[in-house]
């Protein structure tokens, strides 16, 4: 065999191998995408159903809030993590900001209670928020993503529908107040 024939065989072999790899990856993605599509359909149906009956209700909590501030959402032992942050001090605080934290949503702020620290963000500083499926251990779970100016917090929680609807109601109230 001459070099030209050998080169053609190598190129065709590489092309066939890459085609097989692409096909296998496409099959894997197809299965994952089917589950995501089904999960998204269920989430949208649940959210639409809950939105019809949702009313903002005040929740009693164990500590006192400032005057004219009311708590509308409280959840214990949730999993959350932060994606990007600029301040190095806060970055250090968020090392344990993984699980077993409490979240409070009042009409003025959203508060995350970690082991011994409270981290708070004003409701007005939330740029956007949405329900986001999270792929964990080959399963899709419901979550909520909050975008602040330089922060992105992802909350893994079965009760994220209520948190989403609470934030939506509070943001709409603030829009009409201005």
From TrEMBL:
This is Transmembrane protein. Keywords: Membrane, Transmembrane, Transmembrane helix. It comes from Spiroplasma taiwanense CT-1. The chain crosses the membrane at residues 6-29.
């Amino acid at each position: 065999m001459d070099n030209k024939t050998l080169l053609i065989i190598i190129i065709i072999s590489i092309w066939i191998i890459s085609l097989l790899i692409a096909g296998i990856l496409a099959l894997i993605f197809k299965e994952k995408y089917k589950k995501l599509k089904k999960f998204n359909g269920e989430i949208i149906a649940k959210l639409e159903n809950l939105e019809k009956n949702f009313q903002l209700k005040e929740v009693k909590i164990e500590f006192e809030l400032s005057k004219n501030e009311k708590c509308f959402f409280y959840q214990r032992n949730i999993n959350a993590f932060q994606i990007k942050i600029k301040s190095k001090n806060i970055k250090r605080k968020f090392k344990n900001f993984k699980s077993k934290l409490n979240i409070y949503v009042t009409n003025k702020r959203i508060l995350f209670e970690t082991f011994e620290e409270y981290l708070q963000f004003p409701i007005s500083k939330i740029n956007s928020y949405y329900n986001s499926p999270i792929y964990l251990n080959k399963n899709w779970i419901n979550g909520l993503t909050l975008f602040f100016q330089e922060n992105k917090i992802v909350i893994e929680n079965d009760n994220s529908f209520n948190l989403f609807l609470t934030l939506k109601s509070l943001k709409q109230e603030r829009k009409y107040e201005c």
